[in-house]
Amino acid sequence: MSIGRAATEYAIRITDDDGAPTQVGDTGNLSIRGVPGLSLFKEYLHDEKATSESFDEHGYFLTGDRVTLLDHGFIRFSDRAKDMLKVGGENVAASEIEQVIAVVPGVREAAVVAKKHPMLDEVPVVFIIPQAGVERAPPELHDAVMAACCAALADFKVPREIRFVDEMPRSTLEKVAKAELRKMLG
Q1: What sign does the dihedral 63-67-70-76 (CA atoms) show?
Q2: Residue 149 · residue 159 · CB < 8 Å
Q3: Disulfide: which of 45, 61, 107, 159 matches 126 by Cβ 3.0-4.6 Å?
Q4: pLDDT tens by residue, 139-180
Q5: Strand-strand pairing, 11-15 and 121-130
Q6: Strands 161-164 and 121-130, how do they pair?
């Protein structure tokens, strides 16, 4: 399932974290170059710092999206870079863990965020809205989630903590506000 490929008025680059171009099948960071003010936004209004941090030295806009390069220039969305966790030096996509948990019976919604860890840098923590609500969630739901994660994920990707909540903080577009979840970790 691709999201398409770049239109002729755009140039795209997909690079690894060191800036090297990715190969077909690899996932990397998406950058886009167009005509500023015409096919691509020109600047952040009254915020030169944000503008300069959002473009590289070649005029490419750093989208913050991670995509997988497919055959013939097609790309597939993978994740947002800020939703990547760094666990013991390994990149872990929050969405990979969320997809495993989402299909566990009794889970209505799950969101994974990073918690600081003294040795591993970060570890995954999952917030879950139980189907029946926190008060009526079956006691075995915690164990079912952990069993699913242990069966489907590498050890370092398994959440170190599960927190059951009745609702998730939301952004204006009704997306889960993961920054707020990180604050809840204390």
Answers
A1: negative
A2: yes
A3: 159
A4: 899 999 999 999 999 999 999 999 999 999 998 778 899 989
A5: unpaired
A6: parallel
Cα–Cα distance for residue pair 186/176, rounded to 1 Å: 18
Q: What is the mean pLDDT of residues 112-123?
A: 94
> What does the block give as tokens for 7?
């239109």
Q: Please state the pTM of the whole predicted model.
A: 0.70
Asked whether 3 and 75 are in contact (CB, 8 A), the reply is yes
Q: Which two tokens stand for residue 134?
A: 């926190």
Q: How far apart are CA 142 and CA 133, in angstroms?
A: 13
CA-based nearest residue to 27, from 39, 37, 42, 17: 17
Q: Are 142 and 104 in contact (CB under 8 A)?
A: no
The closest alpha carbon to 123, from 136, 132, 114, 131, belongs to 114
Single-letter code of the amino acid located at 23: Q
Query: With contact defined as beta carbons under 8 Å apart, do 9 and 35 qualify?
Result: yes
Quick one: which of 53, 31, 33 has its CA closest to 41? 33
Q: Is 114 within 8 Å of 86 (Cβ atoms)? A: yes
Residue in the block written with tokens 């974290």: 17
CB 126 within 8 A of CB 161: yes
Longest dimension (CA), the chain: 56
Cβ neighbours for 166, distance < 8 A, ≥ 6 positions apart: 129, 133, 134
Q: What number is the average pLDDT over the span 37-53?
A: 90
For the chain, the first-to-last Cα distance in angstroms comes to 38
